[in-house]
Queue: 3 jobs
Job 1
Amino acid sequence: MKNIRERLRKFILPIISNKIAIISFTIVVVAISLISYYNSQLGSVSNKDETIVFEIKSGESFDSVLSDLKANGLIKNEMIAKIYARLNGLTEVQANSYILNSNMGVKEILNVIHSGNFDYLAKLSITFQEGLNIKEVAKRLAEKTIYSDDEIIAYWANKTYLNSLIDDYWFLDNSILGTEIKFPLEGYLYPNTYIFSSDSLAIDVYTRAMLNEMNEQLSPLKDAIQATGMTVHEFLAFTSVVEQEGLHEQDKKMIAGVLYNRIANNMPFQCDVTVFYVLGKNEFNNYLSDVKIDDKYNTYKYLGAPIGPISNVSIVTMDAVLNYTRNDYLYFFAKQYTGEIIFTKTLSEHEKVAKENAWR
């Protein structure tokens, strides 16, 4: 009997030992995997330098903040972030507007919003209205930052810098580098209100904020723009004319329809706003000589849209151009004080309206 027990012991113990070893090994592997996963989920969402304005409202719950962080592409996993916050006493957050970055990890983000770190607070708000040309955009930016208009314009004209932007943004191409283009980034800096952490950031930071917003607005329209047969550059040039000519959405759709009609009839746009862009002011010195200026932006002299955009444009105007109102008109006239647009089909009708409402 004793021999039997001894044999069983020698047979069973190795099996038990092996099972314990396997279980232990499995536990270690699982633990390492969980720790690895946990740490990976605490890492940054992206390696790219992309600033994001993140607002925490007064009284907002921590779970809601985590959900917003995830929705804004700032964290990978809400649950892991919550675990880390609880383990490190970071579940209380300070209401404020923060300038965060997609290359920040969970640890850094939670520490910032827990402490209300002053370095990350939004301190500067700049609004760029639709219809501003690039000189006006530069002036608005200069008013709010440490830079002068001339410094900003020069920065936006630097070819090395422009080529770096072309590499980074799908909607920018060599069209902006043409020798007859007055301002390469004209029309590409999206009009909106932007919030920044300082008035002394690199000009590139302010620029990319506007280009990133343009990317957000243009990307969903990519196929629709392609269907027009225009490049993005041509589309923005066309749209900028509509932006300048119309105040109201319904007018913009009609104006776009008129301009399409003029293209179909091989007629120049003959839009005063394009000559004003060339002149650098909103009035003619001498109407007859000014409209004959030999400049590719002058739609009295050259067919189709100008060689480049003449101002920034809003998503409303982009939509108006893509979903224009079909009509039989070839002319339109804007009343000086009301902005009311009068559409006509013939030159004689147009001249009659212009004479009755003359303001030049």
Job 2
Amino acid sequence: MTNLFNSLMTKSAGLVLLALLASCSQMTDLSSNTLLHKKSQKGLPSEPSAKVVASAAKIKSRDKHGYKTYSDKVRTRLVRTTSYSHQEREKGAPGRKNCLGGTLKYGSQVRSVAADWSVYPVGTKFRIKGLPYIYVVDDFGSALVGTNTLDIYHPTLSLMRKWASRSVEVTIIQWGDYDRSLRLLSQRRRYKHCNKMYVQLQGRISRREVAKSETSAEEISQL
């Protein structure tokens, strides 16, 4: 009887040990998966807050992609972002040069963005939720005209593809110069997309729909 009892106790202890080992293994797997997920998300923004998403849903005016058209008074907003790289080598693209003749930035502090200058004038600076960088509008693109999209510059195709297209929460920290943008666009009106931005921007300025410039000409010349 004693031997039977001892045998049962030994088996029970073994089963408990196996269960504990299995539990530890599952916890290790979960921890590894969490680390892998965090690693894969490195360099990508946080999810927009519920408050910003709910606020965007109340705005009726939208662009052709279905994204909201905000008043300049609204600094924190939900926007569509895309990505581009000079390595795409698009026909007519000036390599790693922006539309101002400077170099597109992808540093540890400041990074370049292309946009419709009638929506986000040259020199506009903003932050993206979850990322430590300051993004500055120093470029434009024909596909962006008539949209509220912000096109984030990346130096490599792999980084560009990783970002892809995504909705993000941005906060404008400094509005660029609409008058300066208008002058720059006036010199390029022979190009259809530049002329369209020029006309749209001229209309917004005449209707006083734009924010007062917070970026000096000197700052813009350094972009």
Job 3
Amino acid sequence: MCGRCRGLMAVESLSGMTTLNAFRASWQVRCINCGNVEDMVIRLNRLEPGLPSIAPSRKIAVRM
């Protein structure tokens, strides 16, 4: 079930050449209704998102 629209998710296979000229196949799911795409990395990150990223503080220079 799609996380965006609750539509039907279909599995599709992607295959192609990588930068090292090695054949690589991967799987992803795509929503038939809205086109939302999820692969294994996205699904794993949603299960365990890990540590939140902290943006570096920025100093704003004020000219007078």
